[in-house]
Amino acid sequence: MTALLEARGLSRRYGGVHALRDLTVTQHRGEALGMIGPNGSGKSSFVNAVTGNIRLDTGSVIFDGTVISGRPPHVAMRAGLTRGYQAVRVFATRPVADNLILAGLPHHSDADRLLHDADVADILAWLDLAPLLERLAGALTLFEQRRLELAMRLLAKPKLIMLDEPVGGLSPVEVRAMMVLLRELRARCDIFIIEHTMHVIRALADRVIVMVGGEKIADAPPEEVLRDRRVIEQYLGVSDA
Q1: What number is the average pLDDT over the span 187-215?
Q2: Where are the alpha helices (DSSP H) in 85-216?
Q3: Calpha distance 225→210 (Å, rounded)
Q4: How far apart are CA 150 and CA 136, in angstroms?
Q5: How distant, in Å, are the alpha carbons of 146, 169, 176, 195 from that of 172?
Q6: 134 or 116: which carries more pLDDT confidence?
Q7: What is the pTM of this model?
Q8: Which residue, 53, 55, 32, 25, is CA-closest to 161?
Q9: C-alpha pair distances (Å), 223 with each of 160, 226, 235
């Protein structure tokens, strides 16, 4: 397997606190990589560091052969790396159609025809967004907003989407529906997923990295990770697991 994402020796301190401590992570092409760990363990910091949203103290990030560490976020996006957020980020006061057009502007030369593009129409149909185009994004349900945000990221035609708790706040029925979408998403691009919901990680990730205190304490397939004594002691035994 060839590497798509190579993050080597990443470190980031805030005063005396290590958000990341000499962390090395590799994600291979065609692989769904999961990351778990208690709150404050460095999961979101890792995504922020890889996508250029925070500055690294040390380390390097290579994505699809391009060095993106120390570069602004748009460099990662142009290379094919995009991300979602724990809190959905949409333009709440604008219609769904405007959200898609604004997200697609850097990637499509003709904004007026963007929603009629065959690939965009396919995404809208897949995510069941076509009936919602005239609705204000802020009036959508959380699940609808999450689907909209996913569509907005897909307009960049990414090679990898990094998702930070994509089922957070959803009902059990919506979680199951989102899991179906995320399985299907793998046919469109590779995924990296942070989650606290263990059955989601089990179902979606080929391999799981466990973070504690900014460090990696395990890196293996899901079932093997869940039997690891260090993981049980340092993560699965805590209240927010």
Answers
A1: 94
A2: 96-104, 118-126, 142-154, 172-185, 198-204
A3: 8
A4: 16
A5: 15, 9, 6, 15
A6: 134
A7: 0.91
A8: 32
A9: 24, 5, 15
Distance CA 100, CA 209 (A): 33
- Alpha-carbon distance of 153 to 137, in angstroms, equals 15
Checking if the pLDDT of 238 tops 70, the result is no
Residues 204, 176: Cα–Cα separation, whole Å: 12
Whole-number Cα distances in Å, 240 to 39, 102, 161, 198, 225? 8, 36, 25, 11, 17
Unique residue bearing structure tokens 């569509």: 151
Our measurement of the distance from residue 28's CA atom to the centroid of its chain's CA atoms, rounded to an integer in Å, reads 15
Among residues 84, 14, 6, the alpha carbon closest in space to that of 55 is found at: 14
Assess contact for 3 and 28: CB atoms under 8 A.
yes
150 residue type, one letter: L
The CATH superfamily label for domain 3-236 reads: P-loop containing nucleotide triphosphate hydrolases (3.40.50.300)
How many Cβ atoms from other residues are within 10 Å of residue 68's Cβ?
Answer: 23
Q: Are 9 and 60 in contact (CB under 8 A)?
A: yes
Q: Is 52 left (phi over 0), alpha (psi -120 to 50) or beta?
A: left
Distance, CA of 168 to CA of 189 (rounded, Å): 21
Query: For all residues of the chain together, what is the average pLDDT?
Result: 93
How many CA atoms, within 13 angstroms, populate the side-chain half-sphere of residue 35? 28
Phi first, then psi, for residue 92 (nearest 5°) are: -65, -30
Instruction: Look at the chain and count its residues.
Output: 241
